[in-house]
Amino acid sequence: KRQFKEGDLVIGNFNGAGKFLPGKINKKNTDGTYEIKYENGQQEAAVANENIMLPPAQIAEKTRVESNYLGKGGWMPGTVVKVNDDGTFDIKYDDGKVELAVGRAQLEVKPQTEAKTGEKVVVPRRNSKPFIIEKKNDD
Fold first, then answer.
1. Under a CB-based contact definition with an 8 Å cutoff, are residues 14 and 42 in contact?
2. What is the Cα–Cα distance from 45 to 64, expressed in whole angstroms?
3. How far is the C-alpha of 51 from the C-alpha of 34, rounded, in Å?
4. I want to staple 90 with a disulfide (CB 3.0 to 4.6 A). Which of 48, 72, 82, 83 is the partner?
5. Cα distances (angstroms) measured from residue 92 to each of 72, 73, 105, 114, 115
6. Does the predicted TM-score (pTM) go above 0.85?
7. How far apart are CA 109 and CA 82, in angstroms?
8. Rounded to an integer, what distance in angstroms lies between the CA atom of residue 55 and that of residue 10?
């Protein structure tokens, strides 16, 4: 679990209801939850770690992401093909499928680096241990 500290800028899942709001950690509670003051003035006193994430990296067209396909828990690699005015994203998945108007909470930005043959690269994975790329295919 990621640990947050007072003053960290975060995105909180307000009341655990799927409404993600930007805010700041006011304090860490003794039970391991956090007090968050949101930018809209609202506040929560006991937000669980799993309902807090770091603010998003800047996402633009051509950004490589993993997306929660149709919001059903199946995370798939793809590329942002359009940034919409409402803050959602259109994604083209590596298998050719396209999903429109994907919310930011359904995306994780993938590393933007390229490995060289024989280079070992640690790649963080969602909810699992990192793995090492030991060989780059040249296709």
1. yes
2. 35
3. 10
4. 82
5. 17, 17, 17, 20, 23
6. no
7. 15
8. 5
Low-confidence ranges of the chain (pLDDT < 50): 118-133
Residue 107: count of CB within 10 angstroms of its CB? 22
Calculate the CA dihedral of residues 29, 107, 99, 68 and round it to 10 degrees.
Answer: -60
Kindly list the distances between the CA atom of residue 73 and the CA atoms of 96, 106, 107, 126, in Å, as whole numbers in the listed order: 19, 9, 11, 12
Q: Take residue 123 and report the two structure tokens written for it.
A: 């790649």
Nearest by Cα to 125 from 105, 111, 139: 111
